[in-house]
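User: I'm preparing a small set of examples for a lab meeting where we compare how different chains pack in three dimensions. I only have the primary sequence for this one, and I'd like the structure in token form so I can line it up with the others. Please keep the answer compact; I'll paste it straight into my notes.
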Amino acid sequence: MNISFLLTSLAIVATPGTGALYTVAAGLSRGTRASLVAAFGCTLGIVPHMAAAITGLAAVLNASAVAFQTLKYAGVAYLLYMAWGTLRDRGTLTVDENAPEVPALKVIMTGITINLLNPKLTIFFFAFLPQFVHTDRSDAWLPMTQLSIVFMLMTFLVFALYGRFAAAFRDKVVARPSVVTGMRRTFAGSFAALAAVLAFEV
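Assistant: Understood. Below is the structure token output for the 202-residue chain.
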């Protein structure tokens, strides 16, 4: 395994983004188990991007401005939806011991959608993986798949660590409603800010 691949992947995975933000929110609101489920969902959201890169569809997306812009603005819209839901409905960040359990499938699907609508992941896989694979090989898809699985595993572990760390502070958050309100606003603002960054990226 190339050490450069591992270090670069770790740097990319550890950089806070929408998936990490969602996992932290799950950990703060519903504890360790929910954060692990959220991390799993975000990790599954990488699969379509990985498949696109391996099959060559990423090249089409990279070459088509319309396709890229469509996916990008779908992602922007979903991030704004997450911001609104966090601020208004308190569905993304609700710290309440008596609140009904959020179905694991719903948490997973939200995590999948967050990463599925992130066009930067497809471009990342398209531009990043070939640097560590001899693409002229007839079986180049095999090492690309192996490296992608390693990247997904790193994503899950790092996100799970973020979520576990957030869950450790859950009791302190539950005891202070004012902190909950502030966090909801912070998370909503963060989702909106990430949407703005994605919208204005070229």
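A couple of notes for your slides: Residues 3-7+16-92+100-200 form one domain. The mean pLDDT is 77.

User: Perfect, thanks.
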